[in-house]
């Protein structure tokens, strides 16, 4: 019996409700009763198959680095909409990571990751995690899990990550959280802004009083700095990064998404009456207008956004699309992007084959992009690819 048939059987008999752990005792009974075996009806079949591919992966392949955590975040978006298998997978993944990662040596822990970046490992709390910047994103799906289950361990992990940013992570000369413990003074891209901003905004949302103010203050400092360093306010485009201690001269597709996600990650958690809320919403609008202006003829974003001779690409588009759609839906930016959304969503759907495999992906990273090595398409896929598309697919089918 395959996994999908097994899940359907569990839900049909009601047994599935007893197996969705941890935190089930404190999760909303009404929400749990609404769980079904089906993904949303309006999710295209090829994207359903992409989700199923994620669900078929062993937990050991879903690391707490971004390649794994963004996929768990994508699954939890569908869990929130009632998909039982996504909820079951995410909760069991969290249990697996709590149990397994603390038993690993440093060498075993780092052996899980494709990236060679290294940073100290925090073993103080219930979840072991590296303070390498992309590992800080583990707080994001864990926060989503907490919102569904009210599991106290999940809440503690979110606070542990924010505390690590406040007290352990190095800073570069601008005051931004360091990319890693090695070459951090001469290199950064806007993803470091994202990890630091959203993680502290989450902690601010989970706490009260002076403690909450402290977390929000750090989130705002990190986002202010990221905007000052990376955003070209004349064009509205986001610079690729800092290389060899110099601010870059190109505008990479995923950098647009990183800074938009940073802003939306703060606005999602910041009280709407906060004195800085309107300013950050204005910065999101500035980037959104620039991204819309440079949308490719097929609906994607070019690898270098302002270079129409570079290939159109799907992950940068999916990042921007999800952030802009949420911001527009929430009223944080204006509702003038319907054509952009339609073209971008069509491009995403056409970038996934019938089996759920993604194409039109710039699989290289920021340094090759800054060097204008723009044709590194579909070479070496990583888990972040379907994760980004799941987040966008959820937003576009709400």
From TrEMBL:
Gene3D superfamilies: 1.50.10.10. Keywords: Hydrolase, Signal. Transmembrane segments: none annotated. GO terms for biological process: carbohydrate metabolic process. It comes from Marinoscillum furvescens DSM 4134. One of its GO terms (molecular function) is hydrolase activity. InterPro entries: 6-hairpin_glycosidase_sf, 6hp_glycosidase-like_sf, Glyco_hydro_88, PolySaccharide_Degr_Enz. Residues 1-27 form the signal peptide. The lineage of its organism: Bacteria, Pseudomonadati, Bacteroidota, Cytophagia, Cytophagales. This is Rhamnogalacturonyl hydrolase YesR. PANTHER family: UNSATURATED RHAMNOGALACTURONAN HYDROLASE (EUROFUNG). Pfam families: Glyco_hydro_88.
